[in-house]
């Protein structure tokens, strides 16, 4: 039998970041490539915008 070589596929690469940054899909803030969540709204990198995050904030006086 002969040498059977499987066809070589190009390696998959993640989408290159624009100048080392990524845009938040929720608030559009430009975060550094190293950030795993948005520095403005705390949404994780790659989060879909289909469902909004509900956050409940208590008034300051409710904490004391």
UniProtKB/TrEMBL annotation:
All residue ranges annotated as the RanBP2-type domain in the record: 18-47
Name of the protein: YY1 associated factor 2
SMART domains documented for this protein: ZnF_RBZ
Lineage per the UniProt record: Eukaryota, Metazoa, Chordata, Craniata, Vertebrata
GO biological-process terms attached to the record: positive regulation of DNA-templated transcription
Residue span of region Disordered: 1-20
Gene Ontology MF: a single term: transcription coregulator activity
GO terms for cellular component: nucleus
Organism: Takifugu rubripes
Cited PROSITE patterns: ZF_RANBP2_1 (PS01358), ZF_RANBP2_2 (PS50199)
Any one Pfam family match given in the protein's UniProt record, by short name: Zn_ribbon_RanBP
Superkingdom assignment: Eukaryota
Key words of the record: Metal-binding, Zinc, Zinc-finger
